Amino acid sequence: MQDCDIVIVNFLLNRIIKRKLLVEDKYKIDSLDIKILSILQENSRKPYQEIARELVVSGGTIHIRIKHLKELGLIKGSRIVLDYTKLGFDVTAFIGINLHNAGDYSLVLSKLEEMDEITEVHYTTGSYSLFVKVVLRNTLDLKNFLVEKLQLIKEIQSTETLISLDEPVSRDIQLDFS
Description:
Elements: H1 3-18, E1 21-23, E2 27-29, H2 31-42, H3 48-55, H4 59-71, E3 91-99, H5 105-113, E4 118-123, E5 130-136, H6 139-148, E6 156-164
Antiparallel strand pairs: 1-2, 3-5, 3-6, 4-5
Helix pairs in contact: 3-4
């Protein structure tokens, strides 16, 4: 390791130890921002005035802070979390995908993005090139998805499917930079 590398590593470690997040040298994320983000994780539709009352600051402060957090890309959006089983989608599965060549990643990804059954795609290390999550109505739909769509992609060498039996934990990470 060269001296400049050691200086960089020490700098980053000091940032981590201080537990402060600096974004683009323009806006320092502080404890108020973390509290706002935590509240929005719990309820992204909570009115700014309620957040302001809870944090004992003005509504304008909350509005400005959230605007900055959005501009920085820390807040990507908000959404409603659906219970897919109540809508008739009873099967969630994870599929490990091995590609013939690592260079096929972009092409395969563009094909996967067109498949409505896929809710997540992860480019991974380890046993698989890609790991995808699918949500379908039943196991017959899963079989048809595998045979009639996914396994027809010639750049895919092989797949392994794992069916989720239950999802006992589903949560966002807890933010605490104090």
